[in-house]
Design a protein that fits this description.
Distance between the termini: 54 Å
Structural class: alpha+beta
Number of strands: 5
Largest sheet: 5 strands, mixed
Radius of gyration: 20 Å
Oligomer: single chain
Length: about 220
């Protein structure tokens, strides 16, 4: 049955207009983007297939063109549109954090980090540089690969903090394994970075570990 044959109260677009975007499931949101399904499947059915195949919205956004277009009904045009939507979301969150105190909007920080790091297949260490009002100056993916005390260089982090005249920083790195738990190495690395930045009067506000759509905060764990 096509979505147009559904009761109006169950159609994703009508539900959004009537009840708000937050009431829709991931499949329903994706169906609004897809607009149409394929023979024998509605847009919602196709969206559910995509979510099952790639695991999550982040998984869909991270899927390469060659894999995504293997799904019947998804071509290069839809791939380009998905990538554009993903990038607009990241930029919109970044703009908001540049004008707001990030400590007053921790969810936005987590959402931004999930969008930036949650779907990456390699481990990346990111630093958010903040001004004296806790607004984001910029963010940089500074190191990648297997992150240890020997592969993340405190000296380089200090240099970038001084370059941006940052008053504080937030660290974040992802765990491609999907497990948002800190290791002993993560704790030692954070201590070393905090010591190095303290020498130039730059505070470390938090360190987040990102795994898919899940985040762990060192501050909330009492580790910082």
């Amino acid at each position: 049955m096509a979505i147009t044959d559904w009761p109006a109260s169950e159609r994703p677009r009508e539900k959004l207009l009537e009840n708000g975007v937050e009431t829709l499931s991931d499949a329903e949101l994706l169906a609004i983007f897809l607009r149409v399904g394929v023979t024998g499947k509605s847009a919602v059915d196709l969206s559910r297939d995509l979510l099952t195949k790639f695991g999550s919205l982040n998984g869909i956004f991270a899927a390469p063109l060659s894999e995504l277009t293997q799904v019947n009904g998804i071509g290069s045009s839809k791939y380009a549109q998905l990538q554009a939507i993903f990038e607009m979301s990241r930029r919109a969150l970044n703009e908001q954090m540049q004008v707001k105190d990030v400590l007053s909007s921790p969810k936005q920080v987590r959402d931004y980090l999930c969008l930036k790091l949650g779907s990456l297949m390699r481990e990346v260490f990111m630093v958010l540089f903040l001004d004296a009002q806790n607004r984001i100056i910029t963010s940089e993916e500074m190191f990648s690969g297997t992150l240890t005390q020997t592969s993340v260089y405190p000296r380089e982090v200090v240099k970038r903090a001084l370059h941006y005249n940052a008053a504080s920083v937030i660290f974040a790195h992802n765990h491609p394994s999907g497990i948002a738990e800190q290791s002993h190495a993560d704790e030692l690395l954070t201590i070393e970075l905090k010591k190095a930045l303290a020498l130039v009067d730059v505070r470390v506000l938090d360190h987040f570990i990102v795994a898919g759509n899940t985040t762990l905060s060192f501050v909330e764990r009492g580790l910082l």
